[in-house]
Amino acid sequence: MVDSISDIIVSGTISTTFISLILLLIIRNIAKHIIVVIVTCKDKISLAIYVTIRSSIQIALLVLPFVIILS
Fold first, then answer.
1. DSSP class of residue 15?
2. Residues 36-68: pLDDT tens digits?
């Protein structure tokens, strides 16, 4: 993955900032959602709920300062 990212940056199609702030975070969240689905299929609902709530809190802590600054 790292090699393909460096190739994209060198070609100049996507900026480094966009890749680091947007794409890598989306890929990380997709991995979390896949883990939640797998854990739920194995009947470990409490772990799935824990991961979901933790992810929601992280998003809220990221968005809240921006909302306060913009308001």
1. -
2. 889 889 988 888 888 888 888 887 887 787 778
Query: Are 39 and 51 within 8 A, CB to CB?
Result: yes
Q: How many CA atoms lie within 13 A of 19 on its CB side?
A: 14
The distance from CA 28 to its chain's CA centroid, rounded to whole angstroms, is 4
Q: What is the pTM of this model?
A: 0.54
Please state, in angstroms and rounded to a whole number, the distance separating the CA atoms of residues 40 and 42: 5
Name the region of 30 (left: φ>0; alpha: ψ -120 to 50; beta: rest).
alpha
Q: Which two tokens stand for residue 1?
A: 């993955």
DSSP category for residue 42: T
pLDDT in the model for residue 64: 81
